[in-house]
């Protein structure tokens, strides 16, 4: 089960802004108190395109769009030696530009180059929201082709569920006078509060994620280091856990396929 903290609005069902929380008419001081969500948030392209911008940060209502995931159809591809530009359409609004930075110059061996995904391919994108030249886009740190079309429907349900969950939490926090805290918000809704484990992950997967998440170096945690810290757990089990966490968007590779960082670290 893919269960990162998140929220959304598809521009229907009575929500006050397309693709996200209704934007409040607050002061600058109010804006400074907005919360940054700690996990990868399921979003729609409409939510990203309609998000409000404050300096280099983007907000849907009171929640900062830091690391997000979208699912949509690639309708255009433009390649260069250092970057692949995509237009991704999820049918909730205009297509969204997705930029994937690569190192595909002539000095890089052909097998090591990142191949562009083709047009008319459904894809799940993990990345961060950016603005360049006044145009909103997502800088991708991972792109995965959708192999099962049920994932498209599942993503939209995921977006709706997370939006409703965070809206309910925010309303209860406001009624009690308690301040909203994005870190505890993610824990209360999506994590096991007693153990700190992420719901939907088994024990080994949670242990591996915890070790990778605690690593603060630029290159991230190496598989060798994770294995050393999990004595008694077979290396094969560690690698299977890493493969699962990577495919689900909890972690991503850095300098090579043996080093990983957590997406919510």
From TrEMBL:
The keyword Kinase does not apply. The keyword Nucleus applies. Transmembrane segments: none annotated. It is found in: Nucleus. Residues 11-23 have a biased composition (Gly residues). GO terms for molecular function: single-stranded DNA binding. Residues 1-36 are annotated as: Disordered. Residues 160-258 form the Replication protein A C-terminal domain. One of its GO terms (biological process) is DNA replication. Its main location: nucleus. GO terms for cellular component: chromosome, telomeric region; DNA replication factor A complex; site of double-strand break. Residues 1-10 have a biased composition (Low complexity). Gene3D superfamilies: Nucleic acid-binding proteins, Winged helix-like DNA-binding domain superfamily/Winged helix DNA-binding domain. InterPro entries: NA-bd_OB-fold, RFA2-like, Rfa2/RPA32, RPA_C, WH-like_DNA-bd_sf, WH_DNA-bd_sf. Keywords: DNA replication, DNA-binding, Nucleus. PANTHER family: REPLICATION PROTEIN A-RELATED (PTHR13989), REPLICATION PROTEIN A2 (PTHR13989:SF16). Belongs to the replication factor A protein 2 family. This is Replication protein A C-terminal domain-containing protein. It comes from Magallana gigas (Pacific oyster). The lineage of its organism: Eukaryota, Metazoa, Spiralia, Lophotrochozoa, Mollusca.
């Amino acid at each position: 089960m893919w269960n990162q903290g998140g929220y959304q609005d598809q521009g229907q069902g009575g929500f006050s802004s397309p693709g996200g929380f209704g934007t409040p008419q607050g002061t600058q001081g109010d804006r400074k108190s907005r919360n940054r969500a700690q996990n990868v948030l399921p979003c729609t392209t409409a939510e990203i395109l309609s998000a409000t911008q404050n300096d280099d940060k983007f907000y849907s209502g009171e929640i900062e769009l830091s690391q997000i995931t979208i699912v949509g159809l690639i309708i255009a591809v433009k390649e260069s030696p250092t970057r692949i530009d995509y237009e991704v359409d999820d049918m909730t609004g205009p297509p969204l530009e997705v930029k994937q930075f690569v190192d595909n110059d002539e000095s890089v061996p052909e097998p090591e180059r990142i191949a562009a995904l083709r047009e008319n391919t459904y894809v799940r994108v993990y990345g961060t929201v950016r603005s360049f030249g006044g145009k909103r886009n997502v800088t991708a740190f991972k792109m995965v082709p959708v192999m099962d079309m049920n994932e498209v429907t599942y993503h939209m349900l995921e977006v709706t569920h997370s939006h409703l969950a965070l809206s309910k939490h925010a309303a209860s926090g406001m009624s009690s006078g308690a301040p909203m805290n994005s870190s505890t918000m993610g824990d209360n809704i999506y994590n096991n509060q007693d153990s700190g484990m992420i719901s939907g992950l088994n024990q080994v997967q949670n242990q591996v994620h915890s070790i990778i998440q605690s690593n603060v170096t630029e290159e991230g945690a190496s598989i060798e280091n994770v294995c050393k810290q999990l004595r008694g757990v077979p290396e094969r089990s560690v690698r299977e856990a890493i493969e699962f966490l990577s495919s689900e968007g909890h972690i991503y590779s850095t300098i090579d396929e043996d080093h990983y960082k957590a997406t919510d670290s």
